[in-house]
Amino acid sequence: MPNQGGPWDRVAQKPSAPPSRPPARGRLLVWLLVVAGVGGIVLVLTRAFPEAMRTGDDWAQVGYGAALLALVASGLTRLRREALPQHLRHAALWLGIFAVCALAVAYREELASVPRRLQMAFSPGAPVATGDQELVIPQNDQGSFVVVGLVNGQRVRFIVDTGATETVLAPADARRLGLPVEQLRYDSLSETANGTGRGASYTADRLEVGAIAFDDFKMSINQADMSASLLGMSFLSRLESFEFRGRQLILKWRDPV
Fold first, then answer.
1. Out of 60, 174, 220, 226, which could bridge 170 as a Cys pair, Cβ 3.0 to 4.6 Å?
2. Residue 138: is the preceding peptide bond cis (ω within 30°)?
């Protein structure tokens, strides 16, 4: 016969212990410590910023916040010890989210300028609108202020040159505009940072730099090759103002231009 065994052959199974809770006295102590801490913080803040607590509504808001914290603390004291780490992680996550939102509100003006800063950093040559009728041209790593404008709708790379009296087109840019460079009469003199050059007079139907636009704009086409066209005083002097501030050139213009 198969051995049926006896009670001594069976391993006694102990009932699983219920999840432990913090002792009642310990929970009360934790709750009292939290309440005392909240009260201490409120007291310190009211003494440090007495002007902030002027009306009954101000005190009511503080009391509401303190009561809410006390209620949350009382709930935390009733958590099982096994679940406490998980709840603490969740609380830390929400505190982190709250801190990020608070920083976003506190630095909202700085954050609003981030897209402009990124555009200036990663879009060299593109003028950035920073205000009403205001453009900023950032300085490049070579120390020049380079901006891409439009001449008769064609993109032209300009170097801003306050030492140049005229705005000067490089021969390569003039060719892209469809101008017969070899057939022009280079009988005018233009002053640039590199000295005096011979140029041919030319009137563009339209010159645009960002939102700044001039029709029938007179410029010169340089006879010698140039690394880039020059945006000279003939353009800058028609603005309301231009200012070098740090690594930025700030242009302001009149309305209408």
1. 226
2. no
* Cβ-based neighbours of 107, under 8 Å, separated by 6 or more: none
Could you read off the pLDDT of 13-49 as tens digits, one per residue?
A: 555 555 555 555 656 666 677 677 777 777 776 776 6
Q: For 215-255, how does the pLDDT look when each residue is reduced to its tens digit (9 = 90+)?
A: 999 999 999 888 889 999 999 999 999 999 888 899 998 76
CB 159 within 8 A of CB 230: yes
The 3-state secondary structure of 97-124 reads HHHHHHHHHHCHHHHHCHHHHHHHHHCC
3-state helix, strand, coil in the chain (%, to 5): 40, 25, 35
Helix (H) or strand (E) holding 257: none
The closest of 126, 128, 102, 134 to 114, measured between CA atoms, is: 128
* Burial class of residue 57 (count of CB atoms within 10 Å of its CB; 0-12, 13-18, 19+): exposed
User: 78 Cβ partners below 8 Å, 6+ apart?
Assistant: 21, 27
DSSP string, 3-50: ----GGGSPPPPPPPPPP---HHHHHHHHHHHHHHHHHHHHHHHHH-G
- What type of residue is 12? A
* pTM score, whole prediction: 0.54
- C-alpha pair distances (Å), 88 with each of 37, 41, 100, 159: 18, 21, 18, 58
